[in-house]
Design goal:
43% helix, globular, single chain, alpha+beta, five-stranded antiparallel beta sheet, two-stranded antiparallel ribbon, 9 strands
């Protein structure tokens, strides 16, 4: 669906909380176009089918036919019920005016096409571009916060009640983090050939160990999470397409789930507004958070709790290093310098960050 060929998912991605699954496929399998075109009688004849995204939960293709251009999505997990739930959500959100790109139905009226045991969905192609926080003005940052607020309030309208779902979410145990740090330190120190990344990884792991020793007593208690509700689950720049200054489509709803809503707002800001040196652009963050709170009615206490839990999450987060050293997957390496610096800076500037979101 995006014009660019970059994958959205490794950035939780740029959620920076880490993926829920890892695809070991190094290239997208060629879609069975014959079987697919029989399911979508309106498509005409195929002209080209080019890979545009290889993510953790799906592969994407720009499909050109004699009738137009489409985004073809191969859902790797194959969970038909979960995919159908995502599709239903985007269809209902579109009816409320939320900028999304719902799937097109097959000739039989289904939005999931199962061909050769694989699950596919066809979407209209959306021309647009990705914009991170550095490319947004303060006014556009405010509109971004309002947009996420609209997503959350509209999901509450169109999805079944979130009450009683997903229970308490336990925060990371620092004892587990200390063990992880020791494991990753050994791998970073013995990596061959050793490069600059290994040196930075060792430095950040030692730094993180010191910070956790100093702040272990600040672990969020069970039951302190903000109000739960349906969320996009992966709201970041690569999953939002713009036409000019206006959002054109929120894409990739694979992680649609019930989670603390304000935490998604904080995580998204920590991705959109992080600078290469790991600092957050607090002026834009403040505008974004103000609009989110106004749109959803979330109070200062709810945002403050979310800030604390996401800060703790970042302090105990090692997914990029796990990918590199344990899964031998380096796709997320470019995110490490800013993400690892953010945890340190956020700890030092905790009160300023808290004020930007909840002040």
């Amino acid at each position: 669906m995006p014009r660019s060929s970059v994958s959205a998912e490794p950035a939780e991605s740029a959620d920076i909380a880490g993926p829920v699954a890892v695809s070991r496929e190094t290239s997208a399998p060629v879609p069975p176009l014959g079987g697919l075109l029989r399911r979508y009688a309106f498509l005409g004849e195929p002209v080209s089918c080019e890979p545009v995204a290889q993510g953790l939960l799906n592969h994407g293709f720009r499909l050109t036919t004699t009738r137009g251009v489409y985004f073809l999505k191969h859902h790797l997990d194959g969970d038909h019920a979960a995919i159908a739930r995502q599709h239903g959500a985007t269809q209902r959100l579109a009816a409320l005016g939320v900028p999304v790109a719902p799937p097109l139905p097959t000739t039989e009226g289904d939005t999931v096409a199962v061909v050769e045991g694989r699950c596919y969905a066809l979407h209209p192609w959306v021309d647009g571009s990705h914009r991170d926080g550095a490319q947004l003005t303060e006014a556009e940052s405010l509109r971004l916060g309002a947009l996420l607020g609209v997503v959350h309030t509209c999901l509450a309208q169109v999805m079944e009640s979130a009450a009683g779902r997903d229970g308490e979410e336990l925060s990371a145990d620092p004892r587990d983090s200390f063990e992880t740090i020791e494991e990753l330190l050994l791998l970073a120190r013995t990596s061959r050939p050793r490069d600059a990344f290994d040196g930075l990884a060792e430095h950040r792991l030692l730094e993180r160990r010191t910070l956790l020793e100093r702040h272990a007593h600040r672990r969020p208690p069970a039951g302190a999470e903000p109000t739960a509700g349906w969320v996009h689950g992966d709201f970041h720049p690569l999953n939002l397409l713009y036409r000019g200054a206006e959002p054109a489509a929120i894409v990739d709803w694979d992680r649609l789930a019930v989670q603390p809503r304000a935490e998604e707002a904080v995580r998204a800001a920590a991705i959109f507004f992080v600078r290469p040196d790991g600092e957050l652009e607090l002026t834009k963050t403040r505008a974004y958070a103000r609009a989110y709170r106004r749109t959803t009615g979330a109070g200062e206490a709810e945002l403050a709790a979310a800030v604390h839990r996401v800060w703790w999450e970042r302090l105990n987060d090692f997914w990029i290093l796990r990918w590199r050293y344990q899964l031998h997957d380096r796709r997320a390496d470019p995110q490490f310098p800013a993400a690892s610096a953010l945890a340190v800076w956020w700890t030092e500037e905790y009160e300023a960050v808290l004020d930007a979101f909840a002040g």
